[in-house]
Amino acid sequence: MFKHILIATDGSAASEHAAQLAVGLARTHGAKLTVVYVVDPYPYIGVGEINPMGYQAYTAAAQQQAAQAHALVESLCSQGGAPVTLQARLVEDVGAAAGIVQSAEAEGADLIVLGSHGRSGISRLMLGSVSTKVVAESKVPVLVTR
């Protein structure tokens, strides 16, 4: 049924659960799996002088977190069962929801799997919901798991 599954990860427990589900689906369907980590644009507020060290530290930390998240999914793929073809992508300088949707289109994915943190009330209003935005913007099916 599915030939190419995209898993969006941020390294959280919710995305780890989603990755386990995506790896299982990829094994069941013999699908290729792409894991995407999106780095939000640098939060420069325009006050004071430009600090290149701040940007470099932000980028280095994001790349390290992405490598850890990708390694986790890679370890899930290597644990028993049928082999899973995996590719890792790092998307930078775009919001999380847009980066996930754009990656799915660019990679030709036919399913997006992502975890939800399950925020509600004020925290959801203030922080937004990446999963809600992905569901609204995606042209391919989206599987959201908690």
Q: How many independent structural domains? A: 1
In the CATH hierarchy, what is the architecture at level 2? 3-Layer(aba) Sandwich
Decide which structural class fits the backbone. Answer: alpha/beta
Sketch the topology as an H/E string, one letter per element: EHEHEHEHHE
Helix fraction, binned, reads 40-55%
Write the layout of secondary structure elements.
Blueprint: E1 4-8, H1 13-29, E2 32-39, H2 52-78, E3 86-92, H3 96-107, E4 111-115, H4 121-127, H5 130-137, E5 142-145
Parallel strand pairs: 1-2, 1-4, 2-3, 4-5
Structure summary:
Helices cover 49% and strands 20% of the residues. The protein has helices at 13-29, 52-78, 96-107, 121-127, 130-137, and strands spanning 4-8, 32-39, 86-92, 111-115, 142-145.
What does this structure look like?
The chain is of the alpha/beta class. The protein has a single domain, classed as HUPs (Rossmann fold). The protein has helices at residues 13-29, 52-78, 96-107, 121-127, 130-137; strands spanning 4-8, 32-39, 86-92, 111-115, 142-145. The protein is globular, with a radius of gyration of 16 Å.
